[in-house]
Amino acid sequence: MFYILTTFIFIFGLIVGSFLNVVILRYNTGKSLGGRSGCMSCLSKLTYKDLFPVFSYVYLKGKCRKCGSKISIQYPLVELATAFSFLAIFLKFSDSLDLVSIIFFFIVFALFIVIFVYDIYHKIIPNGLAYTLAGLALIYRLFLTPFSNIELIHVLDLLSGFIIFTPFFLLWLISRGRWIGLGDAKLVLSIGWFLGIIYGVSAIIIAFWIGAVVSILILLIFRLKHGGKHITMKSEIPFAPFLIIGFIIAFFYQIDVLQLGLFFLI
């Protein structure tokens, strides 16, 4: 029964991931999320044979059935990322059979995936998505993480969104958006409330570590290929994907980078 359920969750994740691809491509374009999808090159409408998540991409060898143009690797990657995320969430909460948390974080991770890819493409985090996540995070902190007595750590967890938001906001304000975007500051509001102060801080530190390594690698690769003419240290690299990766690592592995838990006997 367990294997049947995990298989169902995985397939459900693939289907949701397919819908998230539509959201990513049509969000803020004025296009409806309904209606049939089509080839981006020849505009031919896709048939049901072309709409099976991942499998259609593999069967068509990553090319349009009609015109033969390449299909973006984004489609299967988003579908697989959603499926594996949903499966990991289910496994995390399956022991306690916490159905509310499972469904809640399905929604949360779906939003994170949309922001992840959208920021890569457009270098911006849509306000609607950032505020929705922040609202869900505050609901989670207020109503889905109950505690029996009020201690300092609980107060800090309740304020964690604002605590982590503040330095990002100041960086944005002082640099006038040159160092970091305001969208990143809005995104860390939700990360702070979802994870609390200890793991929220860890997520941010992990994000900066990964972001630094990846950014240096990108700079080196582009300089080797183009002689440094097309990218510099001032070139814009989206930071939201690194924040989301940091969140995922802290969320699933409960990593306390600074060992802050020692101060609260956690």
Question: If you had to describe this structure to a student in words, what would you say it looks like?
Answer:
- By secondary structure, the chain is mainly alpha-helical.
- It folds into 2 domains: 1-97, no CATH class; 124-266, no CATH class.
- Helices cover 65% and strands 0% of the residues.
- It is built from 8 helices and no strands.
- The two termini are 35 Å apart.
Descriptive key words:
single chain, 266 residues, mainly alpha, 2 domains, 8 helices, 65% helix
Number of domains: 2
Give the tally of β-strands.
0
The CA-CA distance between the termini, in Å, is: 35 Å
* Series of H and E elements: HHHHHHHH
Please state the overall shape, judged from the principal axes of the Cα atoms.
Answer: globular
Regions with pLDDT < 50 over 5+ consecutive residues? none
What portion of residues belong to β-strands? under 5%
Gyration radius from CA atoms, angstroms: 20 Å
Average pLDDT, all residues: 88
Main beta-sheet annotation:
none
The structural class is: mainly alpha
Question: Can you summarize this structure?
Answer:
This protein is an all-alpha fold. It is built from 8 helices and no strands.
Topology:
Blueprint: H1 2-26, H2 55-59, H3 74-93, H4 99-122, H5 127-143, H6 152-175, H7 182-226, H8 240-253
